[in-house]
Design a protein that fits this description.
Rossmann fold; 3-stranded mixed sheet; 13 strands; flat
Length: 343
């Protein structure tokens, strides 16, 4: 999953990136490209850790979220290269500065300005497409473009536009910046590190389907530099319940309705990210297309039911604790799955 941090100049975007990446500066946290620095968050899951501790595989692989520090905009609108980078993201984190002026008016203006710049980029594309005299598209696509145009002109993202399922499918190829999951991150001052985001901003963002979180990126980045044993007292001193990275990671997964399922073996114990409602057949394809192609059955057990069994899946099978499920079975959060297949 790729998540981009979008913010205008002075929003604290890069400090936020460092905080989420647990102290690693952009140059240390991975590759750089035209859209900015890239780092990886490994999603902690107690169930995966317990399974790994029990069965001791050679390797443990959690869900990974690639975080992109999208380049800042110094111009009145985002440059084309930056918009192009954002279009490659599955989600966007919108950096809303509150460390200089925490007033509700300033926060509202900062949020609306950032969102309007993103909407403007999409509106330009819609108008260009609708203005092509000889363009060929279906009635569904035209209606979808017109509805998207109406929403964008009002400053609403494409994701919040009133579109039918066929209309959304018709727009998929445009990869509109605002037609993706977004989370507003209010970057507070140090003396407001434990403050909740203003209710007015929360309600405004909710109108667009955008959840809101508050954090002090500067403090979080400073804390991430400390040894692990000193972080607990640091959090307590500032009244912060947990590192921001944990809360933001949960929000990213919740926003996209992502749940994990697990596979275990001598070589690897691994968490796989799927959308809630994914079938066993589709989940098999996440691992390898051959498994989906030769799918026979899925052996399924909840992680908490497997973890106490010393003999792993073999013991669970002997005890009759493994359920045999077909292609259409919907995988549940935290299940351990072993796929039977033949190719």
């Amino acid at each position: 999953m790729d998540v981009g941090i979008a913010g205008l100049a002075g929003s604290g975007r890069t400090t936020l990136f460092r905080a989420l990446l647990a102290h690693r500066a952009p140059r240390e946290s991975g590759a750089r490209h035209a859209g900015g620095a890239i780092g990886t968050i490994h999603v902690q899951d107690a169930r995966l850790e317990q399974l790994s501790a029990r069965f001791r595989p050679k390797k443990t692989t959690p869900i990974e979220i690639r975080v992109h520090d999208c380049c800042p905009s110094l111009e009145p609108s985002f440059p084309t290269a930056e918009i192009g980078a954002m279009k490659q993201m599955d989600q966007l984190l919108l950096a809303v500065p509150a460390f200089a002026d925490p007033s509700e008016a300033a926060l509202g203006q900062g949020f609306e300005r950032l969102l309007s710049e993103l909407c403007l980029a999409d509106l330009t594309l819609v108008e260009r497409r609708l203005g092509q005299a000889h363009a060929k598209y279906s009635d569904t696509e035209r209606a979808a473009l017109e509805r998207a145009q109406h929403a964008l002109e009002e400053g609403r993202p494409v994701a919040a536009a009133s579109l039918s399922t066929p209309q959304r499918e018709a727009l998929r190829g445009y990869a509109f910046v605002t037609d993706r999951f977004m989370i507003a991150l209010v970057n507070t001052a140090e003396d407001a590190a434990d403050a909740a985001p203003p209710e007015a901003l929360v309600k405004r963002a909710e109108e667009y389907g955008i959840p809101t979180l508050a954090l002090c990126a500067a403090l979080e980045a400073e804390m991430a530099e400390l040894p692990t044993e000193e972080r607990v007292s640091f959090l307590a001193e500032y009244g912060i319940p947990e590192p921001a990275g944990a809360a933001v990671t949960r929000a990213i997964l919740r926003c996209a309705d992502i749940i994990p399922f697990f596979t275990i073996g001598d070589d690897e114990c691994r968490a796989w990210a799927i959308r809630r409602g994914t079938t066993a057949h589709a989940a098999a394809g996440k691992i390898h297309t051959d498994i989906a192609r030769g799918f026979i059955r899925a052996e399924v057990i909840a992680a908490e039911d497997l973890e106490p069994l010393q003999g792993g899946l073999g013991e669970a099978r002997k005890l009759g604790k493994l359920r045999l499920e077909g292609k259409g079975y919907v995988i549940q959060d935290g299940e351990v799955v072993h796929f039977r297949f033949n190719v």
